[in-house]
Amino acid sequence: MGDEGGAPREEGRRPDSDTVAETRGGWPRLRRRPLWAGMVVLALVVAGVGAFVAVMASRGSTAGTWFKTSSPKLSVSVAAGCPASIGGYGDVVNTFAGPPLVPAGPNAGLICQYGEDLGSGLPSSADLVLSTSLDRAQAQQLAAVIRQIDLAPPSGASSCPAGFFGAVTVIGLSYPGRADVGLWYSTSGCQTLDNGRIGAFEGGNPSFYQGFETTIDRLSPPAVSYKG
Fold this sequence. Notes:
By secondary structure, this protein is an alpha+beta fold.
């Protein structure tokens, strides 16, 4: 699930020592110190303004685009059912630009859980573990919750459990008159939910871990949990 997401922002930093030395050497001795100090202050001010603008832009109309999608991408079809394996796939094909992550009013849905546990407590593969079909009412309930998820980028330090290969849930929603919409839900590590273009982050996001997770776990109870 599409357009690529934006990369994390880099905070403003002081010029490195080589650059400072070159700047110093270009001025007479008596003017060297005040001009060098003024240039550093100016550079920090400009960098700070740039970082502030980047933060503001990330929380504006491009909500969710901080997320980086992966390839190859899986095209989700509710009518076709869950693929037997998602081995080789890294995300879903985007058919809905958003935000939010999905349109309102689906008429059916599908939840596909992957990451078989052979007794080690870790997923052994990307094979299908559980397939759950959703009727119209259930699909609309899930879509309504997903549409309420905050798509703000992660902020501050996050401490996440280990992420495991194959621990993924694929969600499909079908709509009258438009292509099905797929979602890729990484269920271990720093959990994320995305539609192949934009994404949401679980950490520090009650709309994710209380609203979305509570609803999807009720509709399709986790066959195997890697959520730590």
